[in-house]
């Protein structure tokens, strides 16, 4: 029952819809329809062609340029950064080389100074030693001279004491002492040169 | 007819506003407009025709796409309720434009040899031309504009009829009262579903119409048929 009602209702609707179109075949065009459709198309065509698309094209070009410009800018910045980096690296290498040479120079200088100082010290030491020797020699000479006179006096005193007679006659006593000492030196020299011989003779 | 003028005005208004002050970094509305234009420019024209030819035919293709799209969409906009393309005038005009365009493209590219290559494709053994030539003649020069027109027209008419059917049935059942209100709920739901479906069909048909026109132009431009 309800189905047949629904079906008849659908039928009615379809027929109503079809009757609207049934006055003319939908595939056959009407002249005003064509004309106004063409007018719409032309209006839109001119609108898109002359107004919208040129703007879009301009925008796209601008956008492309902006992007390219940015890329170029970034490239330039990167190149600059690379150049600066290379420069710094070169400077750093230079500085390293310089530091190396300076260090080497300093080492050489140090060695040279050390050697000089050593030489100086050696010569100084030699000079001091020579001085000391000369002084010692001088003092020995002085000691020998003073000893000689003192020994003479002492020996004369002793001898005068022993023989009970003054031997203070200077001229004579000095002659005696001198002769004694000369004998002493001569015997000493002879002993020094003939010591082995005397040894051989004594045995 | 008024509906078409409204659609034309809507297109002009939207694209005028959308492209009036275009910035390199787009705002929301501009992005949306650009997305629509890019659909035609990139995924239809440049993909199929290449950059150079794509630019040549872009104004016509863009116009076709948005005209069909907006006139399809009037079918589901309240108070308009009928697609501008569901009367044969617009589809026929557009199909004729497409027809003229692809023949023009072919003749410009291969003056003298376009029709011969279209009817007698090179590389086919000559006895077969007896069969091939009429087929090519009919399919290329007769059926293409007809199918373009009828595909769009019938899709829109049928969509419109379906919606009319469902919503008329809904009000019919409601007026009938008592137990039939339940049917009204069902038909209303279907009517709603088909309204959503019509949006899909509207976009799809606009895309298909433009795409096929582009393909015809591409075939006409191609060196070998």
Automatic annotation (TrEMBL), chain A:
InterPro entries: ATP_synth_B-like_membr_sf (IPR028987), ATP_synth_b/b'su_bac/chlpt (IPR002146), ATP_synth_F0_bsu_bac (IPR005864), ATP_synthase_B_chain (IPR050059). The chain crosses the membrane at residues 34-53. It is a single-pass membrane protein. Component of the F(0) channel, it forms part of the peripheral stalk, linking F(1) to F(0). F(1)F(0) ATP synthase produces ATP from ADP in the presence of a proton or sodium gradient. F-type ATPases consist of two structural domains, F(1) containing the extramembraneous catalytic core and F(0) containing the membrane proton channel, linked together by a central stalk and a peripheral stalk. During catalysis, ATP synthesis in the catalytic domain of F(1) is coupled via a rotary mechanism of the central stalk subunits to proton translocation. It holds the Pfam family ATP-synt_B. GO terms for cellular component: plasma membrane; proton-transporting ATP synthase complex. Keywords: ATP synthesis, Cell membrane, CF(0), Coiled coil, Hydrogen ion transport, Ion transport, Membrane, Transmembrane, Transmembrane helix, Transport. It comes from the Bacteria. It is found in: Cell membrane. One of its GO terms (molecular function) is proton-transporting ATP synthase activity, rotational mechanism. Belongs to the ATPase B chain family. It comes from Subtercola boreus. Residues 78-105 form a coiled coil. This is ATP synthase subunit b. The keyword Ion transport applies. The keyword Transmembrane applies. F-type ATPases have 2 components, F(1) - the catalytic core - and F(0) - the membrane proton channel. F(1) has five subunits: alpha(3), beta(3), gamma(1), delta(1), epsilon(1). F(0) has three main subunits: a(1), b(2) and c(10-14). The alpha and beta chains form an alternating ring which encloses part of the gamma chain. F(1) is attached to F(0) by a central stalk formed by the gamma and epsilon chains, while a peripheral stalk is formed by the delta and b chains. CDD domains: ATP-synt_Fo_b (cd06503). The gene is atpF.
């Amino acid at each position: 029952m309800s189905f047949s009602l629904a079906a008849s209702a659908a039928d009615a609707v379809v027929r109503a819809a079809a009757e609207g179109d049934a006055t003319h075949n939908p595939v056959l065009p009407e002249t005003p329809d064509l004309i106004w459709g063409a007018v719409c198309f032309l209006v839109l065509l001119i609108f898109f062609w002359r107004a919208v698309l040129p703007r879009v094209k301009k925008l796209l070009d601008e956008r492309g340029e902006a992007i390219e410009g940015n890329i170029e800018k970034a490239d330039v910045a990167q190149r600059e950064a690379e150049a600066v980096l290379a420069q710094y690296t070169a400077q750093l290498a230079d500085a390293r080389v310089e530091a190396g040479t300076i260090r080497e120079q300093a080492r050489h200088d140090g060695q040279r100074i050390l050697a000089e100082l050593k030489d100086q010290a050696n010569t100084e030491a030699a000079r001091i030693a020579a001085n000391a020797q000369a002084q010692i020699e001088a003092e020995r000479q002085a000691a020998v001279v003073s000893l000689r006179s003192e020994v003479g006096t002492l020996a004369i005193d002793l001898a005068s004491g022993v023989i009970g007679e003054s031997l203070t006659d200077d001229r004579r006593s000095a002659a005696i002492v001198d002769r004694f000492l000369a004998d002493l030196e001569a015997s000493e020299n002879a002993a020094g040169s003939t010591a082995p011989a005397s040894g051989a003779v004594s045995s | 007819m008024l509906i078409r003028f409204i659609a034309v005005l809507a297109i002009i208004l939207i694209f005028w506003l959308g492209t009036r002050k275009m910035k390199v970094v787009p705002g929301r509305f501009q992005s949306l407009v650009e997305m629509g234009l890019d659909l035609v420019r990139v995924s239809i024209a440049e993909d199929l025709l290449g950059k150079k030819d794509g630019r040549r035919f872009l104004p016509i293709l863009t116009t076709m796409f948005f005209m069909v799209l907006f006139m399809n969409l009037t079918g589901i906009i309240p108070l308009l309720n009928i697609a501008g393309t569901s009367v044969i005038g617009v589809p026929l005009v557009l199909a004729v434009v497409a027809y003229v365009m692809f023949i023009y493209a072919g003749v410009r590219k291969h003056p003298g040899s376009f029709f011969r290559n279209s009817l007698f494709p090179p590389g086919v053994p000559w006895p077969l031309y007896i069969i091939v030539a009429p087929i090519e003649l009919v399919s290329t020069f007769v059926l293409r504009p007809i199918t373009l027109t009828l595909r769009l027209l019938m899709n829109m008419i049928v969509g419109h009829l379906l919606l009319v059917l469902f919503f008329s049935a809904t009000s019919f059942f409601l007026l009938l009262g008592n137990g039939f209100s339940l049917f009204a709920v069902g038909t209303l739901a279907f009517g709603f579903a088909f309204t959503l479906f019509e949006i899909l069909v509207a976009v799809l048909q606009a895309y298909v119409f433009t795409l096929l026109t582009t393909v015809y132009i591409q075939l006409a431009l191609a060196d070998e048929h």
